[in-house]
Structures are given as structure tokens and as C-alpha cells.
Amino acid sequence: LSIRWKLSLFFAAAVAVILVVFGIILILITRQYLLNRTDTALREELREILLEAKLHNSVDDFQTAAQTRFYSHDVYNFVVVDHQNSIVFVSKGLSHQRSFDLAMAPGPSRTSLKTITFAEGETFRSAESVVNSNFGTLRVLAVTSQQPLLAEVRTLEIVAAALLPVALTMAVAVGYVIAGRALAPVTSICDA
What we know:
Helix content is 61%, strand content 20%.
């Protein structure tokens, strides 16, 4: 290889390292941002159903209100369990087995956020808290699928992977031009 090509490849390698590091950092920051956004929304939904549980004097009143407000949510699902681990309320989006699995999981002493993986491999983000209502202590869970979050991150990964060869090709071309200009005086002396 000529010195011009060696300089071009060195330039392309330096650009490749910078792009890969930048891409990894971008994907990690985006993933963390999406997770924080999900956690914030879960906390808000949890706060809403906790407030609903505190407002009512009986299980029946709470179930009626929860059925109206929380049963058919597009993104978030809810499980409310009493102190005997009996399900008081479950929203439409959770299967019987999933709601049972959530009800049987050990409860927190304070609000907690965690990732749950069900037997079939689907992951959910969960916000969970305990509330002392007028009709007993309740453990309340708000959950949402992480599939949309993972799909967004996966899309970003695919775009980054697809653009890397294009960027490297451009880096080699730009490096070749820059090396040609940088070596022009040496080339003119050698040619003379």
C-alpha cells in the first residue's frame, strides 16, 4: 500500500473508533432515557390507583371505581392484592396466570420499581406500593410491557449498524482526499 492509502485507512480507523464509541454511548443513553420515562409514567399511574384505593370505604366501591378508570388501559395494567394475597382488582390486559404470578410475588415495604420476566420470556416494568385503605392493607402494582421500549432501542441499534459502513466508506474517501492534499508537496518534489 502507498503512504496515501495508509493515511486514508488510518483516518478511517480513527473515525470508526469514534463512531462506534459514540454509537454505544448514544444507545445506552437512549435506553436509560426510555426506561426513566417508563418509570415516571408508571409512578404516576401507581399514584392514581393508590389515590383511588384511599378514597373508597369498601372493596365493592373501590372495585367499581377501578373497573371504570383502570380496567381497559391501553398501555398500563394493574393488580391490587389484599393482605391475604387475594386479588381485589386486575385490569383486562393481564392474563389470569400473570396476575396470579404478580399477586404471589413478595411485596415491597415502600414504592419499588423492577423488571419482571414472565415464563414465556416477555419482560414487564413494574411499580409497586402498599397502601392502607379504609378496607385494609393493599399491595398495588402497575405494570407495562417493555416490548415497545426494547423495540425502539433495537431500531436505533439497527440504524447505527446500517449507517456504520456508509460512514466508513465516506471516511476512507475523505481520508484519501486529505492524504492526497497533505502529500501533494512531497509528490511534486518527487516528480520534479
